């Protein structure tokens, strides 16, 4: 029987698409799609109880803090799961364009004119946002609900406003802070849909998303989507440079407490601390999940009929391994579902990056893909043994998120278990890799004829490396190409040549198509005369 899997975030308006296919990544069913509207327009101006070296939360004057949220999560996990209440059907029936006509009034922003450096605005439920999220405020006077008030919104008609229940509730919220201009507030972080959230550094537009948790992604039984059901916004200190948000997460399998410490800047950093309480065993628990979109790029053998050379929110995965190796994996839009695992015991860092920052590589005035942020995860403490899983889903439209990355603990996740993780997410345009290493600038792959006029029965791979010491090396013997395959295959014409246009080096080789009866896993890097690595390791699955 054909399954329908909800997938991806829509660029054109916070809505969810369905992919009809074999089991694949399901992005949030009702929700996270809507966050993609911001990618079209600029933002408004792990195993049993693990140690995590997370900074201590500054308790509110009332004594309310992370411990109280943890206690609520534990209490909730001890009871059967109860789905959240739903909004009225007429709001569910809205398409996104109609929901988008409901605007939060700028002068109703929380903390407006309070001189706190931060403001918050709240999303209206409707369309794919089918349940209200409980909002609370924490300040010196205590903890209090932030009640829904439809007067905070402008509606397209009085008739619609009159139909809105007075106690409807909010779908999510966004935070604003001075980022690009000290005299203007910009969006820095948004929480909307299931457990999705996104951040921005300076001069960036929304692209990829993070999630609170991923459960059984790509499994035959279908993915489970945990939901953030409650938020507590802690009033920031006057002239403070960060703020705190607490959240409760719930699903049939798990309940969880979250603390977000958000520090905006050229690179905005979101510190995440999470304590999970399981109700039942979980076959695959995805920690610190990221989701993004890759439609086509310079490595695409089969291009779409489009005037733009590339279209993607992220172009690669980067891993900092415990053994010191840096691993770069260019993303693909495969012809069938790909799920790849990478050993990541005590992983030092991982993320999805948009390294290509040149407008002329995209030629897109509307989406401005060159301004998409990277999301780099730095685990706090030792997460123990586990692996990273990269999910790449076939997609025929760039409005769908079709990429996911998350860390999976090796130890089985059982019922009635308490788990703790902490990590930082850096939202920025930084490379993430160390300056001492050369990094991959581009991965170009295409059919080639070894002899002109003969059939194009060979795949040519050209990897551009730049940075590190590569710019100072001009002797052809000083740079040695290293290429190997994970199974027997023919690899010919391996060579490294200096590229004066990039200031780096190009590594090229040929693979006959008759060696590609199944995907061929490849690894490549540039070494010095003594065999030491000059670059990160490039890894790729060359498809038939």
Q: How do the strands line up in the largest sheet?
A: 6-5-13-14-15-16-27-24-23-20-21-34-33-30
Rg over CA atoms: 24 Å
Distance between the termini: 27 Å
Average predicted local confidence, pLDDT: 88
Strand fraction equals 35-45%
- The outline comes out as globular
The chain-level structural class is mainly beta
| Number of strand elements | 34
How helix-rich are the residues, as a percent range? Answer: under 10%
Q: Biggest sheet, open or closed, and with what strands and sense?
A: 14 strands, mixed
Low-confidence residue ranges: 1-61
The number of helical runs is 5
Short overview:
The chain is mainly β. It has five helices and 34 strands.
Main features:
544 residues, mainly beta, 14-stranded mixed beta sheet, 10-stranded antiparallel beta sheet, 5 helices, 6% helix, Glucan_biosyn_MdoG_C
Structure description:
This protein has 544 residues and is mainly beta. It has 5 helices and 34 strands. A 14-stranded mixed β-sheet has the order 6-5-13-14-15-16-27-24-23-20-21-34-33-30. Strands 4, 8, 9, 10, 11, 12, 17, 22, 25 and 26 form a 10-stranded antiparallel β-sheet that branches. Strands 28-29-32-31 form a 4-stranded antiparallel β-sheet, with no helix packed on it. Strand 20 and strand 21 form a beta hairpin. The two termini are 27 Å apart. The model is unreliable at 1-61 (pLDDT under 50).
């Amino acid at each position: 029987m054909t399954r329908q899997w909800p997938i991806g975030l829509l660029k054109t308006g916070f809505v969810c698409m369905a992919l009809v296919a074999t089991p694949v990544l399901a992005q949030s069913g009702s929700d996270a799609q809507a966050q993609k509207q911001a990618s079209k327009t600029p933002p408004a101006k792990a195993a049993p109880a693990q140690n995590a070296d997370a900074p201590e939360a500054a308790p509110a004057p009332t004594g309310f803090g992370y411990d109280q949220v943890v206690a609520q999560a534990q209490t909730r996990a001890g009871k059967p799961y109860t789905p959240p209440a739903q909004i009225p059907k007429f709001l569910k029936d809205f398409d996104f364009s109609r929901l988008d006509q409901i605007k939060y009034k700028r002068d109703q922003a929380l903390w407006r004119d309070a001189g706190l450096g931060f403001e918050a605005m709240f999303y209206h439920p409707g369309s794919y946002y089918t349940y209200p999220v409980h909002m609370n405020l924490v300040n010196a006077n205590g903890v209090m609900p932030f009640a829904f008030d439809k007067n905070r919104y402008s509606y397209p008609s009085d008739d619609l406003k009159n139909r809105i229940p007075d106690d409807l509730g909010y779908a999510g919220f966004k935070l604003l802070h001075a980022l690009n201009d000290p005299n203007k507030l910009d969006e820095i972080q948004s929480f909307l849909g299931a457990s999705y959230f996104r951040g921005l550094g300076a001069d960036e537009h929304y692209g990829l998303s993070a999630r609170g948790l991923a459960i059984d992604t790509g499994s035959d039984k279908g993915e489970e989507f945990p939901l953030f059901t409650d938020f507590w916004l802690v009033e920031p200190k006057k002239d403070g440079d960060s703020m705190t948000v607490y959240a409760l997460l719930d699903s049939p399998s798990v309940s969880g407490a979250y603390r977000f410490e958000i520090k905006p800047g050229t690179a905005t950093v979101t510190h995440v601390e999470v304590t999970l309480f399981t109700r039942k065993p979980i076959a695959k628990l995805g920690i610190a999940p990221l989701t993004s979109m890759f439609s086509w790029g310079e490595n695409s053998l089969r291009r779409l009929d489009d005037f733009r050379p590339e279209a993607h929110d992220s172009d690669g995965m980067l891993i900092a391994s415990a053994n010191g190796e840096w691993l770069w994996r260019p993303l693909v839009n495969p012809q069938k579902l790909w799920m790849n695992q990478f050993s990541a015991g005590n992983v030092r860092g991982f993320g999805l990056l948009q390294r290509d920052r040149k407008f002329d590589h995209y030629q897109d005035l509307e989406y401005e893909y060159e301004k998409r942020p990277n999301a780099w995860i730095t685990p706090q403490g030792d997460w123990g043994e586990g692996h990273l899983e990269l999910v790449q889903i076939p997609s025929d439209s760039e409005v769908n998120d079709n990429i996911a990355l998350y860390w999976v603990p090796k130890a089985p996740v059982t019922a009635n278990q308490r788990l703790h993780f902490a990590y930082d997410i850096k939202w920025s345009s930084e490379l993430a890799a160390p300056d001492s290493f050369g990094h991959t600038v581009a991965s170009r792959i295409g059919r080639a004829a070894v002899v002109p006029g003969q059939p194009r029965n060979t795949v040519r791979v050209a990897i551009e490396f730049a940075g590190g010491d590569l710019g100072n090396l001009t002797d052809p013997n000083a740079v040695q190409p290293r290429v190997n395959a994970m199974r027997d295959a023919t690899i010919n014409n391996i060579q490294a040549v200096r590229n004066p246009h990039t200031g780096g080096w190009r590594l090229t080789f040929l693979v006959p198509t008759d060696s590609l009866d199944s995907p061929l896993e490849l690894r490549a890097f540039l070494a010095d005369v003594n065999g030491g690595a000059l670059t990160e390791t490039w890894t790729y699955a060359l498809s038939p």
